[in-house]
Amino acid sequence: MAEVTLRGVVKRFKDNVAIKGLDLTIADGEFVVLLGPTGAGKTTTLRLIAGLERPEQGSISIGGEEVGGLPPSARDVAFVFQQYSLYPHLSVYENLAFPLRSPARRMDKLEIDRRVRDTARAVRIDHKLGNRATRLSGGEMQRVAIGRAMVRQPAIYLMDEPLSSLDAKLRAEMRLELKRIQQDLGATLLYVTHDQIEAMTMADRIGILKDGELVQIGTPREIYTAPRNTHVATRLGQPAINLLPRGLIPDADAAVAAQTIGARTEHLVIAKATNGDGVVDWIEHLGDQNHLHVRVGERKIITLAPPDSPLAAGDQVAIRYKDPLYFDANGDRLGGTP
Amino acid sequence: MSLTTAHSVVVPSTTSKRIAAVLIIAYALISIVPLLWIFATSFKTPPDSIAYPPKILFQPSTEGYCNLFTTRTRQTAEYIASLPPATSFCDEVTRKRNMVIAGPSNFLPRFVNSLIIAFGSTFCAVFLGTLAAYGFSRFKVPLADDLLFFILSTRMMPPIAVAIPIYLMYRELGLSDSALGMILLYTAVNVSLAVWLLKGFIDEIPREYEEAAMIDGYTRLQAFWKVVLPQATTGIAATAIFCLIFAWNEYAFAALLTSGTAQTAPPFIPTIIGEGGQDWPAVAAGTTIFLVPILVFTILLRKQLLRGITFGAVRK
């Protein structure tokens, strides 16, 4: 395990700049999640660290050693791909043993066998060691893929949306399992996703990428409660934050510079009122909670309501802010980092 | 067949399966009749082979095979009577036709030439084709499209169109009538087919596998060997069969460029006619034996061809 540092990394693909001067340090034993939409440069960042792409500028170091010129095999990283994860012509056992059998390692047979079996147990696939990789369910395949990364102790684990191809239930299980495994190993892990729940539940720190730039990095709590700008604010929270123009509903204590007010569910107090600020448009019943769609003038606010809420479609409601987030004309949060 | 079986839109109905089966059987019969006739002729005696009406049922004889493997000279009855008793079946049938065996024929060395040249050129074409296809598939080759078109363009004319320049070139280079020359020629003809076929197969293998292997501590060449090749076996087997069939059956260049030491079986077999009459059983015997290697090769690789490509480890 080691610290991984990127400094001023730039990567271009023909005319398109995929990464624009990225600075990022992943501390030893840290679980960092990069969150961003498709095309933000998440996967490219992983591939740069792995050595599958070469940066045009900047330096990448693993454990203090500059690795910019090294081929992937010399970098001591492990990669879990989003798909195409297992060698289809090999059994589960052979897939797990594959990294250990590399000419770069030359490990002895007994040691390989011991490690493969230990790893298989850790990812709970030891009962399927003899199966062909193609004869597994999606969850099992991804467990083997994670196992193949774990079977050696690399400087850093790089994971590219490893759970995105799984169904919701399995994804929830794997999230917990992955976090448990990472803590057990004390592993350094850089994880890429566009799923905010994965980011919130697993990360020590979340980095928000947009158009090849790191907009903000911090603990999930920081990113959620103190987003640097509206882009970061919309990344986390379900339902998404409501970005409302000033003056839509009473906002007496807003600073002069505040142009946009960001209101999550916890920033809104909604009560039934005659002659209120808005009208309940629609209620989605999710069982444990309701999604409340409120129309205010031309705008729509989406928020949560308890399932026993007395509100119904067509009701007039009064809406008040409670410590919302304020953003200036550029979308930067007031009181946030300059 | 149970009547309760639900009708599925993707599973063909029994009627259409039956029609398909009838068509396939009819096609197979039409294709196989000439081969069976050749096989039957190889076991006929020369008079039976040219009998009219043709004989479907006949007394089998290995005379054709005797004649194929031997050269014979015509002798007087007195001379034959003076010889010691015949020691083998071949001696016996030869003497009945007032001939004696003078020595082995050239069939065996010609057949061996065919094996060396066909398998040698197939190996070279598939080897070079795999490497070239991998290069075109994975790397940014300058002018890749033009190069691929150029490679394909060598197939746009019948190879025999360049027979004269090749004949002259080979004479100058001393490659005429040499196994090396024929291997080079068939490799050159087949390599374009091999590159194009294999590029298709290798394009289908996601490059994530090699990237994974390289991160797992393998060099690109090792990754190619351990990860790409095993997944490309189906394509390689199919390509090898096509190359082999061409090189094995090729007649025109072989007739033109080989006459002695490097002559292959296809130009040799017709020369059997003429040595002591129209010896159809010997020709048929030569053809039958000639068919065996390609038959065996295809049957051996049939499983590879049918296995299909395992993209199952991927969840798309």
List its salient traits.
heterodimer, A: 338 residues, alpha+beta, Rossmann fold, OB fold (Dihydrolipoamide Acetyltransferase, E2P), 6-stranded mixed β-sheet, 5-stranded antiparallel β-sheet, 8 helices, globular, B: 316 residues, mainly alpha, MetI-like fold, two-stranded antiparallel ribbon, 14 helices, 66% helix, 3% strand, disordered C terminus
Structure description:
The complex is a heterodimer of chains A (338) and B (316). Chain A is α+β, with helices and mostly antiparallel strands and 338 residues long. Chain A folds into two domains: 4-225, P-loop containing nucleotide triphosphate hydrolases (Rossmann fold, 3-Layer(aba) Sandwich); 242-327, OB fold (Dihydrolipoamide Acetyltransferase, E2P) (Beta Barrel), CATH 2.40.50.140. Chain A contains eight helices and 18 strands. The radius of gyration of chain A is 24 Å and the shape is globular. Chain A starts with a strand and ends in an 11-residue tail after the last strand. With 316 residues, chain B is mainly alpha-helical. Chain B has 14 helices and two strands. A two-stranded antiparallel sheet of chain B has the order 1-2. In chain B, helix 3 packs across helix 14 (280-307). The longest helix of chain B is centred in the middle third of the chain and has 32 residues, at 107-138. Chains A and B meet through strand 6 and helix 4 of A and helix 10 and helix 11 of B.
